[in-house]
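User: what does the whole thing look like in 3D?
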Amino acid sequence: MSQLLEAIDVVKCFPVRIKGKKKLLHAVDGLNFHIDAGETVGLVGESGCGKSTLVRLLTRTLDITDGHVRFRGQGIGLIAARAMADHPLRREIQMVFQDPTDSLNPRYTARQAIAEAVHLLTDTRGAAAIDSAVEEAAAHVGLPPELLDRYPHQLSGGQKARVGIARAIVVKPRLLVLDEPTAALDVSVQAVILQLLDRLKREMNMSFLFVSHDLNVVRLLCDRVMVMYLGQIVESGPAREVFERPLHPYTRALIASLPGGHGNDSDLLVGGDPQSPIDPDAHRCRLFGRCPRGVERCQTQAPPLREISRGRAAACHFVAPTQREVFVDAALAVHKVHVTPARRAALTTEFDRLADMARQVQSVRLPDDDAPAPQYRP
Amino acid sequence: MSDFPTTATAIAAAFARGEVSAREIATATLERIAAHNPSLNAYTAITAERALSEADALDAARARGEPSKPLAAVPFAVKNLFDIAGMTTLAGARLLAGNPPAAADAALVQRMHSAGGLLTGALNMDALAYGFTTENTHYGATRNPHDLTRTAGGSSGGCGAAVAAGLVPIALGSDTNGSIRVPASLCGVFGLKPTYGRLPRSGSFPFVHGLDHLGPLAASAADLALAYDALQGPNGEGGRDPACAQRAIETTTDSLVRGLEGLRVARLAGYFDDQASATARTASERAAQTLGSLGDIVLPEVAAARAAAFVITAAEGGALHLQALRERPDDFEPLSRERLLAGALMPALWVEQAQKLRTWFRRRVLEVFRDVDLLIAPATPVTATLLGQETMVINGRSLRTRPSMGLLTQPISFIGLPVAVAPLWLEGATLPIGVQLIAAPWREDICLRAAWALQAAGVAGVSPKGTSFGVSPAPTFDNDPR
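Assistant: Here's the predicted 3D structure for the full assembly of 860 residues, as structure tokens:
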């Protein structure tokens, strides 16, 4: 699968003043991840973990402090947020906001709200052409045509959510970022909107990034999940595997705390205050103090996010990588090759393919022959 | 323009008879390239000035009464891993774009030039020759002339497309695991991968030293033989290819008309049927029937041989590029970068076992040639797939498109046997598919005679009745996801 978006060592710091002293709040602290074309990725974590900052970095409404963001192979991390309005990429990355009421202009009808996106971001011109694009998008999100001429206050929460989604997909983006898309909705409406998103995912040829504190949303909709804690990704992997067999203590705790979820009490986080995101100690694991397993080493050596098995990564000293991962990491170190986490994951896949080939070769029992493999001559 | 002859054989003959000037041929060819290349993306560089000055030199030599050369006034082009004096050799890779221009032509380009060929340019390929579809992220995909939504095959995809579209009658390509034979099959042209060590590789960018072959693609069996004869010969002065076997020239053109008289033919079954679509099997059966096959033969452990070729390729390719993988990963083709890196990291044991299997497999296959002179197999599992197509289904199994296109070619080049590909158009087909015509080492003449016989019988050829370049009816294909 081809890579749509890649984030490499992305950092966002906000300067703060505490008791007159200048300090830095590390909202996003060295993130590495990728989203493939057609893939649906979930980003979970509790409030304040940096999810929303990350969303604003990816949609380029906030400037990054350090690192690289590539979209379709093109560096976009350095595009200034204020220049983004006129940038062609603005059409390709679209956003669905948390609160449908806040994000809609009360003086625009649904039709006008959706049409505005077409007008601003595409070359479609002429009332008839724009109208047909609007109606197509409305049909996609299940918004009846008769509601298109209503104002937000005349629409229900679920209907407003549909308008918000239609506004985003009408310009046919490659990546749709949804920030807590159901959080502001009634429970009964949530299920309907989740079904709608699930259908869109199958029908539309685009990638999705779901940002949510609600693990169930992510479990239902996502191919892959990334778990974030205090500005860092602590675990990532196929959604099903992560939920069935969480590796990182923080993920285990999140899942154990779900009503009717897996896991048990010993997985829960211990008391103790979370560490501060302000000038954090780079040598200490961010979970130390709340982690049920924390030891001395966790205070002196922060565990890096590393490949644990095919497609799965975690940042914890207590999660042991497979022998293959140990081998590949050692070989990379010997050859002094540094790879991004996205490439590291792809490397596992390729290494496995070679291992499969080697096994096929080994399956042939050759006659005993002490001679070394001769120089080839046909 | 259409008044001019289009095959190499006919062009050289018309020039020798004084019916046409080299300048006229060069001009018409460059016009054709300018008209069709934008939709095909076959060329990465067009050497118009060089073609015209080479043409003028030939016209002047003819005016002086000098004897005509075998490829006089024949336009050709080369995969962009061949050195062309004054140009940077790209090998399909942005990684190499900053290299200085080549000081001299590659050995085989020199030979084409000496034989009277007119160089028209450099052709697109998969980056570093690692791929079978010429979907090049940095230089764009080459499109199949028979259907522009489909791959031309690879890695010599520009060669296949340029010859199939009639831009040039001859192109030079390279074949490590099938890179001449796959595009020949998918674009429907003739191709020859000679015996390992036959043609010198000096002045071409390497991929896997122990598996790399160079060879021609052409518009007819006769053109293929004509080009091959011009390319033969040991390392020339300053030649640097240590694998070149220094064989004397063994011309083939004159033997073509003998057809397959006295030769024993068999069809490869087993693995070569299992890994082929119904279309590909039908093509191999049709060729076998036409050439009077005595029956089917099953070679032992072909799947393991293919796997071993895969392992050796990744190991040697990875080792070759390790330093650049370390220092300039962003300049690599994303479709093959991590496969190269994995190859550089793998345990030596795997490579050693693959080499041992290679020796064993070669012995077993050479035994077969005691009883048979020619083996027939499909060249690709399917006809051309769509650009961007990730998977294909063969006999109910879903396979990754890009690496699997070489399933049937890899086991043959693995042991260096000479192979010609002849393109077949089955009844009602809108896309061609090639068959491999495989002989014992150094018997390229047999491969070429078989290709010629298939063409003479009306079974193989570059253009089907009822299909012309750029006009494609709405067909159904044997391996489409849509």
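In plain terms: The radius of gyration of chain B is 21 Å. The longest helix of chain B spans residues 302-327.
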